[in-house]
Amino acid sequence: MTTGPHIELKQALGRIGYVADDSLAMALHLALSLGRPLLLEGPAGVGKTEVAKALTEHLGTRLIRLQCYEGLDASHAIYEWNYQRQLLAIRADQAAEEELFSDKFLLRRPLLEAITQDTPPVLLIDEIDRADEEFEAYLLEILSDFQITIPEVGTIAAKARPVVILTANGTRDLSDALRRRCLYSYVDYPDRETELAILAKRGPEIEARLARQIVGVVQALRREELEKKPGIAEMLDWSAALAGLGINDLTEDRTAVQATLVCLLKTAADRDAAPAEVMDRIIGKVA
Amino acid sequence: MGVTRFPSRADGLADRMTGFIAHLRMNGMKLGPGETQDALAALGAVNATDPGQARLALKALIVPDAEGWRQFDDLFDAYWFNSGKTRTGTENAHVRVQSARPTLWRQHLEAPGEGAESDGDTTPGSGEGEAEGIDGRLIASRTDNLRKRDLRELMDEDSLRAAEQAAQDLARAIRDRRSRRRRQARRGEMPDLRRILRASLARGGEPLDLFRKRRPERPMRIVALCDVSGSMQLYARVFLAFVKGLIDVDTTADAYLFHTRLMRVTPALRDHDTLRAAGRLSLMAEGFGGGTDIGAALGEFAETYAARALTRRTVVIILSDGYCTGAPERLAEALARIRRKAGRIVWLNPLLGWKAYAPVAAAMAAALPHLDAHLPANTIEALAALEPEFARL
């Protein structure tokens, strides 16, 4: 299983600095070739958002990002009229109705922006599970037909189909209808080799021995019972912190290493769960 | 049994793909006919003769969620490589259990002799025997006297029906109260510029009519965790009716049963096919009426379902008597974890209505600091009286 179109994509992404596993590469390849949205699920901090950025760079196109949150509505995600300007225009020019609801007064929000591009952009809909279900329903129309209806203007169809990537990390369950429209890939914490490869790509200045130690500690911490398991981003932060402090070996300067754990453990309970003795044990094992 | 036979005379890829989709569907994935076509399209995008590529492509295309993601490889091997793996998933297992213990559900939810809804499921089986066997180890002896008085009231045919009615009424009342909170407010936070502008066109562009908008208050979501251990056996039927009432009238409510383990029963309770619901529930209620480990069960909940089930607008309702064989510290810890994610925790305790009862049991004492409310639920009146209490939350 070392050839195929998805392996080419995987290697291309690797050159940009994103290490994808085979199944993710295949999902991306299909998303590109079938023109279907891709839903990425997995724990926080495994690089779901990074996928979109890497893909954008690979395609040499534009990334349009919609960060979802509770209460996100159509006027923030799709379009909004520029009311202030409309009011002024009525006063100043006695503008006619057709003019008022023209392109001039239309504020494009990410979704409308994405379907009116001339070259297909990458549309990243981040943390879709944070938006409420009403919004998810709205999204369905856009994702299946790539068109948006504005009552005052009419239906705007996509000039070029954007590559859509959705991410979710299980804040709530997504509807079957949305899942059905999307390709799916579950992105898990990387295994040891993959994580080493990621570290080598993103932090080439880190020595091989320290890199092995870092990855070993992070992987061991993920097996501990923590509230927030350290993701790849945390691992990279930590390695940067260690490199910045000039630490070459985790076993050497234990106080400094313990102090840098703020990069990995982000809640008070987790800090307490990894006191110096526990870290000694973990570091002792991987060193 | 359970092996998917590879059709020996399958005509070409389309046929086999149809079979594969059917195979997945049989194993619990929700797939429509559209998926077959999509699957063929996906194979067109890769080198379909390479099994590795085909596997990854189909996986990305077909799998809808994380659970399917874990199952897919085994199912793929079983079908395409005919490795003789049996079907996994619950479908198969529950058929077996359904026929073995068909009446468990009815026993707990419906009044005796009133099983009109589920008359169809009186398959001969060992169901009654099992349930009675469980009856034998019902109650801790020290609470026996008190409980019997309660029991007599509840086992009386009419009052049992009344209790179910009250439970369902209450569930509806909570729902109604919540929906009334969505009233449109006259004074909102934000001007609704879109409406103002639209209206102003009729007045020559003067924004005379001002409209405002505000975020509608979202309904509270209910997550019910119902204790079905031995000591709760007497209340289980009423409480199950209560939980079913909640589920029936509220599409976002979520329900779980626990004794020593925890299981999600929302889909089973929501199943319109009573026969199937009975089968699913009896599978889930394996060990129904055994001991309790509330701490472990709630801990399991906090670990697994909580991430999805709980938000700040969730009311967690725990129906339990607090008699627990597990360590009280674990219960406290589990409640603390749930507390962090949920809006409110309400504990409905059938023992609390008794005059002499004080929550001195170690588990209850440990749990109390984490609760927003600890309310009695031993009689119909007590259940009916819950409504204003919930209104205050």
Write the layout of secondary structure elements.
The complex is a heterodimer of chains A (287) and B (393).
Chain A (H helix, E strand, L loop, with lengths): L4 H12 L5 H13 L3 E4 L6 H12 L3 E5 L6 H4 L1 E3 L1 H11 L3 H4 L5 E3 L1 H6 L6 E5 L6 H13 L1 E4 L3 E4 L5 E6 L7 H6 L1 E4 L5 H11 L5 H16 L8 H13 L9 H7 L7 H6 L2 H11 L1
Parallel strand pairs in A: 1-8, 1-9, 2-5, 5-8
Antiparallel strand pairs in A: 3-4, 6-7
Helix pairs in contact in A: 1-2, 10-11, 11-15
Chain B lengths: L11 H15 L6 H13 L5 H12 L3 H15 L9 H11 L3 H6 L17 H9 L8 H12 L1 H24 L9 E2 L1 H9 L10 E2 L7 E7 L5 H17 L4 E5 L3 E3 L1 H5 L3 H11 L9 H10 L2 H4 L4 E6 L8 H14 L2 E6 L12 H6 L5 E4 L3 H5 L1 H7 L1
Parallel strand pairs in B: 3-4, 3-6, 6-7, 7-8
Antiparallel strand pairs in B: 1-2, 4-5
Provide a short characterization of the protein structure:
With 287 residues, chain A is of the alpha/beta class.
What does this structure look like?
The complex is a heterodimer of chains A (287) and B (393). In chain A, helix 1 packs across helix 2, helix 10 crosses helix 11 (208-223) and helix 11 (208-223) crosses helix 15 (276-286). In chain A, strands 2-5-8-1-9 form a five-stranded parallel sheet. Chain A has two domains: 5-186, P-loop containing nucleotide triphosphate hydrolases (Rossmann fold, 3-Layer(aba) Sandwich); 192-281. Chain A is built from 15 helices and nine strands. The radius of gyration of chain A is 23 Å and the shape is elongated. By secondary structure, chain A is an alpha/beta fold. Chain A has helices at 5-16, 22-34, 48-59, 74-77, 83-93, 97-100, 110-115, 133-145, 176-181, 192-202, 208-223, 232-244, 254-260, 268-273, 276-286; strands at 38-41, 63-67, 79-81, 106-108, 122-126, 147-150, 154-157, 163-168, 183-186. Chain B has 393 residues and is of the alpha/beta class. Chain B has helices spanning 12-26, 33-45, 51-62, 66-80, 90-100, 104-109, 127-135, 144-155, 157-180, 193-201, 233-249, 266-270, 274-284, 294-303, 306-309, 328-341, 362-367, 380-384, 386-392, and strands at 190-191, 212-213, 221-227, 254-258, 262-264, 314-319, 344-349, 373-376. In chain B, a hairpin with a 3-residue loop joins strand 4 and strand 5 (262-264). Chain B folds into three domains: 12-88; 141-178 and 220-392, von Willebrand factor, type A domain (Rossmann fold, 3-Layer(aba) Sandwich); 190-216, no CATH class. The radius of gyration of chain B is 26 Å and the shape is flat. The model of chain B is unreliable at 1-9, 84-155 and 177-185 (pLDDT under 50). In chain B, the strands form two sheets. Chain B has a six-stranded mixed sheet with strand order 5-4-3-6-7-8. In chain B, helix 9 runs parallel beside helix 11 (233-249) and helix 9 (157-180) packs parallel to helix 19 (386-392). Chain B is built from 19 helices and eight strands.
